[in-house]
Structure formats: C-alpha cells, structure tokens
Write a structure and sequence with these properties.
It is a single chain. About 30% of the residues lie in helices and about 25% in strands. The chain is built from 22 helices and 33 strands. A hairpin with a 2-residue loop joins strand 1 and strand 2. The chain starts with 7 loop residues before the first strand and ends in a 6-residue tail after the last strand. About 40% of the residues are buried. Bound molecules: adenosine-5'-diphosphate and zinc ion (ZN) (2 copies). The site of one zinc ion (ZN) has 7 residues, from loops.
C-alpha cells in the first residue's frame, strides 16, 4: 500500500487585487519531512511521515504526528515522492494544526542558514517565526457575528414589532450592515425574529485585535538636501550604513524609503531597539501609513500579537514595525529593511536561541534582493569598519534637521567637587542648571544607568556584602519597597539593618541609583513634577507611554531614567540633560565598554535642544581626562572611531579578531566542571594545527559564578580572523559531541557576566 502512487491536488486560494484565483498545483506527493517541535537535541533533525491522501498538506504547515507513544507537534519542511527511510516503518501524519502554511519558503531557507551559522536547533529556530501563543494553542482568531440587511426580500413584520423596525432603520442608516454588538441594544428576540425571516443574514467575521497607539498627526515636512540625497542613494540591493547625528531626521528618511517600497508593490520591515520606548515613532508611522502598519513587540497582548502577525501573514498589513523579533515578520516580497539604532545591544538575542538580527536582516535582504539600512548616530565600531572597507555603503546626515547646533556638553570633574566640599550626587553646576530649568518652566532629563536606590549594601566594619543565595551577585537596595532585590533572578530579601556576620549596624549603601536621584531631587525641588522611568516603573502595560505622556504635558518637569530615556525621544521642551555618573558603563571588563559609553552619552545628549530653545548637557565624571569624554563632548564620532579602531587593532580585539565564549551551566557543579575539562582538553588539541590563529584560550569560572542556582563555567578564546570560521566549526563540534545539555555558544559576546 505504501508503494502505491497517488496524486494530491493542492488548491491554493489567493486573493490578488480583489479577485480570487485558484491555482492548482499538481504534485506527486507521498512523504513529508517533518521537524518535531521539541527542544531536544536527539530530535534535532528531519523525520519522515506519510501524508494521508485525505489531508491536503503543503510545505510550511504545522501538523500533529505520532512520535513513539506520544502525539507531538511538527513542521512540514518538505514534501516529496520518495523517502529515505524504510517506507514500511513510516507513520502517518495525524492532522493539520492550522489550515495555512505558517512557515513560508523564505523562512525555511532562513532556518537552514541560521542552523549553520549560529549552531542552533532547527525547532528552536522555527519557533522564532511564529507567535509563541500560536504554538501553545492559547490564541485563536477572534470572530464576531455580523448582520447584513437583505434588500432582496419583502419586509413583512407586525406593526407592533417596534424593535424589529428599529433594527431595519438602523441597518438602512449603516450601509445595510452591523455587528452583533451594535444590534444587541435592540434585544435578542428582535434580531432572531428578523434572522428567521431571512430579513437579516448572519455572517461570521474575523475581528482583529489592534494594539493601542497614540495617534498624532505627524508634521508633514519637506526633506532637506541631505535627506533627499540619502533617499536617492538608497536604492540598490546592498547594505547601507546611515550615519546621521541625533535629530538629523532619520525617521523621515525611513518613511520615504518605506513609502517608495510600497509604491513599488513591495513590503517593508523596520526595527527599533525597544518599541515601548519610542511610542512617537509608532504614532508617526501609524499616521503616515495607517492600517498598512503592523506592530510586533512584547508589549502586546497575546491576541493582539497573533492578529498583527496574521495581518502581515495575509498581506493585509505591509509594514512590520517592531523590536528584534519583528525581523521574522511573515512578509514576502520585501522591498526595504531598516534597522534603526543599529548599534544597540538588544539586536543580539541574549537567551537561547542566540542570533544576531544584523545577520538575519542580511539574509532576508539578499533573499528578497532589497536594500538593507542600518541607521545610527553612533554606529557600532564593527559596522563603521565595514563601511570603511566598502562592505556597507556609507550615507551621512551630518546636521540636525532643524538647523540647530547639537547641545553643548559640559564636563564636570566630580573629584574636584569633592575637594571643594560637595560630596552629594549633583555637582553645583547641575543644580544651578536644574534650578534654571525649573524657574523657566522647561524640562530636564537626568540619566543614571542604575535602577534601585543603591547598588549594594555593605557592612563598613567587616566588609560583608548582601548577595543572592542563588546567583552570587550583590543585591540592589530598593528603598520604595524597602527590599533588597536580585537583578538576575528577581528574588527579594529583607534590608540589612545590622550585619549578619559581625552584628555591626554600620551599613553603607553603594553607588547611586534612579530611586535615590529622584528622592534627592524631590528634596531640592519640592512641588516640581519629577518622574522616574526604569524597569521597575514600567512593568505594567502601556506604563512607558503613561510616564512619557505625563512628562510631555508637565512644565516644569524632570524625568529621571536609565538608558530607557536615552533613545529616540523627541520632546521640544527638554533643554537640559544631566548625566549623573557617566563612568558607570566605562569600567566593565569588556572590550566594548568605551564604545558603549560613547554611544550612551551621544544618545542621551541628543535628547536636549531639539526645537527652538538651545540645549545643554552636564556630564559628571570621576575620570574627566578619559579620551571617551573628549570625543563625546565634541560629538566627534570619527575621531572616536579612529582612536578605538587603533586600540582594538593593537590589543587584538574585535572586529579585528573573533572572540568565542562557550558557557556551560548546570545545577550539578561536578558535571559542568567535568564537561568543561573534557571540552577544553580537546579544544586545546586544535593548537597543533591552528597555533598561529589562536591568540588566547582559557577555561575558567564565569564572572558570575552562579545564576538561579546554576553553576557557570566558560571557555574563552580569541582567534585571528583568517581561519576563524574553520576553528569555530571544530570547536562547536567538539562541544556538541561531549555535552548532554545545551551549551551557550557566543561569538563576540555582548556581555561577559
Ligand atoms: P533622528 O532620528 O535622526 O534623531 P528625528 O527623525 O527624530 O531625528 O527628527 C528630529 C526632528 O526633526 C523631528 O522633530 C522631525 O520631525 C524633524 N524633521 C525631520 N526632517 C525634517 C525636515 N526635513 N525639516 C524640518 N524638520 C524635520
Ligand atoms: Zn559586618
Ligand atoms: Zn538571584
């Protein structure tokens, strides 16, 4: 029976320009290659199944299949008339999960690419392509009953059936059509009576749950010369680096590029680092493109996310806007891909499956033969290096769109403040400038990249520091909740009033956080609106928008926040930006820390003076002579780049070398240590063949030795670029062969904790 031959006809219904076309594809199909939707190493390959003749399966569909004694979900990644496995042993697909192929052809190719490039399991990649809620079966389409008025039929209703007459009048006034929620006011009896008489025709319609967007009519602006040039240049299917200073009007350029793609009948994706932080971009796009825009980000409810995804999938929406995961938007025929603030860390997924959005975007741009734009005021060293090498095409917007100068950055030496007797959080200069802002009824932003009240609590007598029992990191003091919190696992502890080790009550608080800045500002400026925006104040839905709105509508006002306030915001009354502790990101044991500091200063400074009033930035530091401050205060990106490039080259760091970190973590410490040892010995063996290419190789405990009670060990290596691909492949195979569980494999890691 298995060898018998049959023909499966697949009806593909597609709507093109409103008329339905039926495409009949004739295929001789018997077998489906299926990837099982399980995150298990042993299942990470293709399994073959028989397609029953009564199931019209197409490639990309999700299906239920028997697996051992269980029934599991799977993805059909291919169909063919031959099988590789013994056909008499194959089982049949049980049923379809959806009646549409959720994974499109392009995404199947992308899966192959990512599996190879990022060493990921196939199922874990496919999961990225569809809304999580859909996989878990938690969301479905939402339907609502609609009623159409049947004009063909003679109306005969009793004279006293007033409600029925009201319904008919209502429908006549509403294009002969209304939803059940509109008609419910007339009572169910009347609706039913009319439906029974066929005066009303019932119809089930899908309802799209739409995310909330503040609608603001975007100012219609005429492109300036630089913007015009940028739009004209960005046409080919290659990668562009759009380097535009803060306020240069990159958003306007993006909108023109997307508009052009739409006019060409194509679709577009635009990524922003964290969408909830930039509601303005959202409302600009909505007001320009209306329902053609779909939003994909984590702030949506499950139903909203599913429906936005469906709108893209079906072609109803043609522009996907969202954070990192929107790069997987189910759009075909892409004509433009844009990654705004391309230097942002959030474009690299930190949790499994790890991938770099830049790579995925490049794959999709190549596949669709469309332009890809990386935009930033502070491109990553890596991207700018590529632009200089000619791999990316550089496009520049060197001045602000409003013609104004960038705000002046004043550097304050906090050591000098201490010498003159000011050991507070704020320098005298910052206090004086804040007072001015308040008196002139303007606004200020205060940037401090640390949430909570203070970074730790320590005993002054014996040095004891409160740490999380599961994570081996010091706890952060949150005064509002009167708690110590672990920022890695969220666990909460009682505040120290006396040292558990020596009994001393002499407890010292560590470095200043947002809470403390707010409470000190309230002492200095009683009655002034002071808002805080960080992870703690924005955990509820739309909290970002509420805070930003409140800020926007208050004069004077001060907004205190972490890097959340650094990006994208365009408030016309902000005339002062204070950077409380600029060094905070500088002294991390991380080759990117200077770059990051430069980016943060530039971004946050860019929030000041965006309209008529002149802006100013006060930057407080304990190391005022560090080169990063010289370049940042002059907005000298190119100078900074040359300096940084030089340092990376001489110290042999990326982008001139490649760092590989392999992170092993498990509850069983002995197991990880053993695994580490085995892998390390074997990797060391590579030195025989690649001695010249391996600059550095070592195995060690991770800087944070334990997170959520998992012990963490790592192998670090730094490679010359020539043979890096080959070595990486071999290293991966060694690790893969030896480990039972999944191991994090990172290239040029963003964060070395
Ligand atoms: P960027 O993203 O480069 O920091 P934005 O896109 O936020 O800059 O633009 C900054 C401001 O300049 C916005 O208020 C925007 O409306 C305005 N703008 C953009 N282009 C023009 C233009 N051609 N003429 C006048 N104003 C413009
Ligand atoms: Zn003590
Ligand atoms: Zn913890």
């Amino acid at each position: 029976m298995v060898n018998s031959f049959f023909i499966l006809i697949i009806y593909h219904l597609r709507k093109i320009d409103g008329c339905a076309i039926i495409i009949i594809i004739k295929k001789d199909v018997m077998y489906a290659k299926v990837i099982i939707d399980q995150d298990a190493k042993a299942l990470d390959r293709v399994f073959e199944y028989i397609v029953p003749d009564d199931l019209d399966i197409v490639t990309g569909m999700r299906v239920y299949v028997p697996f051992g004694s269980r029934i599991l979900q799977g993805f059909v990644v291919d169909l063919c008339d031959k099988c590789e496995y013994d056909p008499s042993k194959l089982k049949k697909i049980i049923s379809k999960i959806d009646d549409f192929p959720a994974i499109k052809q392009e995404m199947l190719s992308l899966m192959q690419y990512m599996a190879k490039k990022n060493h990921l399991k196939l199922a874990s990649i496919l999961r990225l392509f569809i809304p999580a809620e859909m996989r878990e079966g938690k969301v479905k389409e939402l339907f609502e009953t609609h009623y159409l008025f049947n004009a063909e039929i003679e109306i005969n209703i009793a004279k006293n059936a007033k409600k029925q007459q009201e319904i008919i009048d209502y429908l006549k006034n509403h294009n002969n059509h209304a939803s059940s929620s509109e008609l419910n006011q007339f009572g169910y009896g009347a609706i039913k009576a009319l439906t029974d008489k066929c005066i009303l025709i019932k119809e089930k319609r899908e309802v799209r749950r739409a995310p909330f967007v503040i609608s603001e009519t975007a100012k219609k602006v005429k492109l300036n010369v630089d913007q015009q040039k940028a739009v004209e240049k960005i046409t080919e299917d290659k990668t562009y680096l759009l380097h535009g200073v803060t306020g240069s009007g990159k958003t306007e350029v993006y909108m023109h590029l997307i508009e052009r793609a739409l006019t060409q009948g194509k679709n577009a994706i635009m990524l922003v680092p964290e969408i909830s932080l930039t509601p303005q971009i959202m409302s600009n796009f909505k007001s320009r493109f209306g329902d053609a825009v779909a939003l994909l980000h984590s702030g949506l409810s499950a139903g909203e996310r599913f429906d936005e995804w469906k709108r893209l999938f079906s072609g109803e929406a043609r522009i996907a806007i969202g954070a990192r995961s929107a790069i997987f938007a189910p759009l075909e025929n892409l004509g433009m891909i844009i990654i705004d603030e391309e230097h942002e860390q959030s474009y690299i997924s930190e949790s499994n499956p790890r991938f770099d959005t830049h790579d995925v975007a490049q794959f999709r741009a190549r596949y669709n033969k469309c332009p890809l734009v990386f935009g930033s005021a502070t491109p990553s060293i890596e991207s700018y290096e590529k632009a200089l090498q000619g791999l990316y095409s550089l496009v520049e917007l060197p001045v602000r769109a409003n013609g104004k100068e960038l705000p002046k950055i004043q550097i304050i030496d906090m050591m000098a403040e201490i010498r003159t007797g000011n050991s507070g959080i704020f320098s005298n200069q910052l206090l004086a400038d804040l007072t001015n802002v308040v008196n002139n009824k303007k606004q200020a932003m205060i940037f401090i990249n640390r949430r909570g009240y203070s970074s730790f609590q320590r005993c002054r007598d014996c040095g004891y520091i409160a740490k999380c029992v599961d994570c081996d990191v010091s706890l952060v003091y949150h005064r509002e909740d009167n708690r110590l919190k672990c920022h890695y696992c969220g666990k909460q502890y009682k505040v120290l009033t006396r040292c558990p080790k020596c009994g001393s009550e002499n407890i010292k608080n560590g470095a200043v956080g947002t809470e403390q800045v707010v409470s000190k500002l309230k002492e200095y400026f009683p009655g002034v609106k002071i808002l805080r925006m960080d992870n703690d104040t924005t955990s509820t839905k739309n909290a970002h928008q509420k805070i930003l709105n409140e800020f926007k509508n208050s004069l004077p006002a001060i907004l205190v926040g972490t890097q959340m306030i650094a990006k994208g915001h365009d408030f016309e009354n902000v005339v002062l930006v204070g950077i409380v502790d600029a060094d905070q990101s500088l002294y991390h044991a991380d080759y990117r820390s200077t770059e990051r500091t430069f980016q943060l200063i530039t971004q946050v400074s860019g929030r000041a003076g965006r309209s008529e009033a002149e802006g100013k930035v006060v930057l407080q530091t304990y190391s005022p002579r560090h080169y990063v401050y010289k370049f940042a205060s002059n907005y000298d990106y190119k100078g900074f780049f040359r300096k940084e490039e030089n340092i990376r080259q001489t110290s042999q760091f990326p982008p001139f070398t490649r760092i590989i970190r392999i992170l092993f973590s498990d509850h069983d410490e002995n197991y990880v240590r053993e695994l580490l040892k085995v892998c390390y010995t074997e990797i060391e063996g590579l030195k025989e063949r690649y001695n010249n290419d391996i600059i550095y190789l070592d195995a060690m405990k991770s800087p944070i030795k334990r997170i959520q009670d998992k012990y963490r060990y790592q192998i670090m290596m730094r490679l010359k670029l020539d043979n890096a691909d080959k070595i990486e492949e071999e290293v991966f195979n060694i690790v893969d062969k030896n480990s039972k569980t999944s191991v994090f494999f990172e290239i040029n890691p963003q964060n070395l904790s």
